[in-house]
Amino acid sequence: MKDGWEVVIGLEIHAQLSTETKIFCGCSTHVGDEPNANTCPVCLGLPGALPVLNRRAVELGARAALSLGLRINETSIFSRKNYFYPDLPKGYQISQYDRPFSERGVLEIMTATRDEGGHAREWRPLTVRVTRLHLEEDAGKNVHEGLPETERYSYVDLNRAGTPLAEIVTEPDFRTSWEAYDYVNHVRKALQWVGASDADMEKGNLRCEANVSVRRVGDERFGTKVELKNLNSVRFMQRAIEFEIERQVNTLEAGGRLTQETRLWDDRAGETRVMRSKEEAHDYRYFPEPDLPPLTVSAEFIEGVRRSMPELPDARHRRFMEEYGLTFEDASTLTRELTLADFYERAAKAAANPRGAANWLKGELLRELDAAGVGADASPVSPEELGALVRAIDGGKISGKQGKEVLVEMFSTGKGAADVIEERGLAQVSDAGEIERIIGDVLAANQQQVEHYRAGKEGLFGFFVGQVMKASKGKANPKVVNELLKAKLSE
Ligand code: ADP
Ligand code: MG
Ligand code: ZN
Q: Among the atoms of ligand 1, which is closest to the Cα of residue 173?
């Protein structure tokens, strides 16, 4: 950012709620079916068809709202947002306008300053005011096929029409592109965590628009904002904002004027381009949807949703540090996903060693899982077996180094820790009687060295340890060997 300038950013996110059926009809929300297979008179917009609100969409909307610290309104109103587009057969979208489902959220997120390469340097809290979260239906899709120079057809696929969305809008509270980046990631994770949405930007079930303006430091008034679209990943959004900051500052410094417009990010070209100016913008002529009654949710309903939600990521992160003594970074890694956090807590219990379980999970098992592209919920090594492995190491049955090999085999075969240790004949000999016998043999075979040692040549101790380990084929527990050897030699 050029000296003397400040950027102001507000974000709008559309998240698809993970319902089985659409928001105002019983059609499936399944993706990948034949075009227009999942349609009916309601989502086709046929005259006279009446919408009926899907209760599950309201539940998931409530989960989303609560996970982001919003208040849910007891009564909210659906409104018609009128505009024409081929993927919107009704000629209007059912959305919410002046009385949204939920509003006035205060969300605390963590954000980092970053170096040139985008690596997080230092984390600090940031308070974001979430203006509103409202419910609405998605539009269909226009599909363009064929080559322009031969035959090119455009089709309309209405399978997506009527899929429930939560639109989440913030106040213009972000002052860097990375703050915006960290916020979108926070929202994405929160929605996935509570099961409200898959929130996958690549699959398009989370879409994001950034409103960006610049002003001179010290100015009270906001500058003219530009709305950025076509941001297909969080990183694209961050880059698009950076480009836009530079473009706006350069324009203003050259004495130019900015127009309020919508611009599209072209990642290949690394620039934003005008899509439409605000003069061409629609007047949506919102009015209350006459075919739907006001949506009323009771305090009991909200309480029920709240009770059914898992402990939120930040609370769990804090608890992992306090209850299990994990570092900030370890707690962050292990609360990356809900399934991983659950896996960890079970493993910690089974291991009776929370720190040990954390080390083995994040250091070894997670590497295998990530390499295989498998989530913790589908791990071939169960939390209980990871715990058993940690106990075997803590109890001196096998060494840490052997533990790594055992884990790799557990992962590839799905066998339990005890079975792999047994089959590989890895179990260390910790039995004092057995080790004493080996020591006796070794000392008897090396009488001369024993005399030298007793005469003060203590450097020979390592030699005896080596001989005992060799005689036990590497299976003797080194700690026990050390103790017993010392005792024997000083007799
Ligand atoms: P619109 O009616 O154009 O959609 P809104 O006032 O509803 O505008 O705001 C849409 C988004 O733009 C919100 O996230 C808001 O915080 C953000 N926003 C509003 N004004 C500015 C501005 N001057 N600079 C950056 N973002 C802004
Ligand atoms: Mg807008
Ligand atoms: Zn339908």
A: 16
Atom of ligand 1 nearest to the CA of 212: 25
435 pLDDT band, cuts 50/70/90, is confident
Per-residue pLDDT at 71 exceeds 70: yes
- For the cut 90, the answer to whether the pLDDT of residue 269 exceeds it is yes
169 within ligand 1 shell (Cβ under 6 A): yes
Distance separating alpha carbons of residues 244 and 229, to the nearest angstrom:
12
The structural domains of the chain, ordered by start, are 5-300 (no CATH), 310-423 (no CATH), 432-489 (1.10.10.410)
Say if ligand 1 is within 6 A of residue 10 CB.
Answer: yes
Over residues 157-177, mean pLDDT: 98
Output the pLDDT for position 425: 78
Contact 34, 143 (CB under 8 A): no
Q: How far is the CA of 189 from the centre of ligand 1 (A)?
A: 24
Neighbouring-strand partners of residue 105? 130
Q: Which of 171, 220, 225 to mutate to test the pocket of ligand 1 (most atoms within 8 A of CB)?
A: 225
Token output for 231: 């941001």
Ligand found nearest the CA of 13: 1
Confidence of residue 280 (pLDDT cuts 50, 70, 90): low
- Across the chain, mean pLDDT equals 94
User: Which pLDDT tens digit goes with each residue over 196-209?
Assistant: 999 999 999 999 99
What pTM was computed for the model? 0.86
